[in-house]
Amino acid sequence: MFVCEISFVTLEQCSSARDSPAAVPSRATWLVLVVVLLGEVMDLVDSSVANLAGPSIRADLGGGPMTLQWTLSAYTAAFALGLITSGRLGDVLGRRRLFLIGMAGFTLTSLACGLAPSPAFLIVARLLQGLFGSVLIPQGMTLVKVVFPPERLRAALMPFGPIMGLATVAGPILAGWLLHLNLFGSQWRSIFLINVPFGVLALALGRRVLPRSGGEDPDARLDLTGVGLLTAGSALLIVPLIQGRELGWPAWTYAMMTASVVMFALFVVSERRSRHPVIAPSLFRKRSFVVGLLVVAGFHAALSAFVLVINLLLQLGMGWTPLCTGLTLIPWALGTAAAVLFGGGTLGRRLGRAALRIGLALAVLGLLVLWWSTHHWGTALTVGKLAPSLFVTGCGAGLVFVPLFEFILGDASAEEVGTGAGLLNAVQQFASAIGVAALGTAFFAGLGNPSPHAYFAAAQLVFALCAGLYFLTLLLVGLLPGRAPHAQQ
Length: 489
Description:
Blueprint: H1 2-7, H2 11-19, H3 27-61, H4 65-93, H5 95-114, H6 119-147, H7 150-157, H8 160-181, H9 190-193, H10 195-209, H11 224-247, H12 251-273, H13 287-317, H14 322-328, H15 330-351, H16 353-377, H17 383-409, H18 414-447, H19 452-477
Helix pairs in contact: 3-4, 3-6, 3-8, 3-10, 3-13, 4-5, 4-6, 4-11, 4-18, 5-6, 5-10, 6-18, 8-14, 8-15, 8-17, 11-12, 11-18, 13-17, 13-18, 13-19, 15-16, 15-17, 16-17, 16-19, 18-19
């Protein structure tokens, strides 16, 4: 019945609805939003779900700490590397076409991840999965911008903030549940195979409702120089961060990180001179956008490292099962969900940037209590003893997700929203990869000879570093305007 009803809503109706200034979005318009949000959720869950499954993957396929870090970082690094470029590529090749290609590729590579026979195969499959994800996501944002009338656009984009937050925290819990079920003896493989039916559904629905024209720019060109410099700079940074500790930090790792700074500087120079820049220059003249991206980077770097390390501590240090670990994180997820649904939007509108400060302060407090709990109880730690600190940490994160999204895109024009949202997602993913690589390196460096005591000491180090990173982002919030820009209009 649902499919039959979809068939009666045509793309022409959707297009004509957008052309009318006072038009109410049609059913097909809302279904476009559903398809795009489905892609967003698949991406965000997949970027976090492997954190909890990491020990199970390592036990099954083998490999050392560097293999585990690559398994976790390969997706987010590849996603971030391709995301900004793919946004511009959509102008050249067509957004509907690239969205469907990205979704098809994402689905197939998810299948490949689930069937991986070796660590090397899984890492390559994760890299390709991230690249296809980067093709998929920026097209969706712009397709939403095209089908919704301008006066409805901001309302259509507002669910992205809460959904991005909730999908991020849902990943580890979903992974624990799937690992416990062990469907058909699939063990960890089910966390990737579950993408396949959802990907097929999104493809079928997307082919039916996505508009043929996605607001492409007929004069757009791909700045190959800018793309090359951005990609090279990012790769030169992420590779030594992941491999450096395992190899004893040879000279070439420092040379690569130095070269990455040079590449990023050359990218900035190239963007200023380019006729077809990869990133819209006007976005960087907006203080709320620039500062907001810095806050996003610090916030998600700490968040991703926290999720990785709490999973390693509970599974490898305490010997808990993936299901028990996932259930232990429920207070964190509940705190995040409650803050997002009941506090984020309301406090953001009433308190402006003060809401971000409250959220980050709670996140710092929660991590410090978590540090004390692990230090005080050690191997006598229980789910109940962890719950208060995890709940407070989750509440802090939830209070950040919604207002921060509004600060970053609040004064973006309709022409800038797609690029800005794509860049926001790229920074989030790349910061997550850097967080896993850098703070994961600190964790394994502090581990020494694995033992329960060593796991606790290494985890406490990372919890302290995450709290410090949250505190730095709290200071950055002071550079934001008092309220989200659109609230001033």
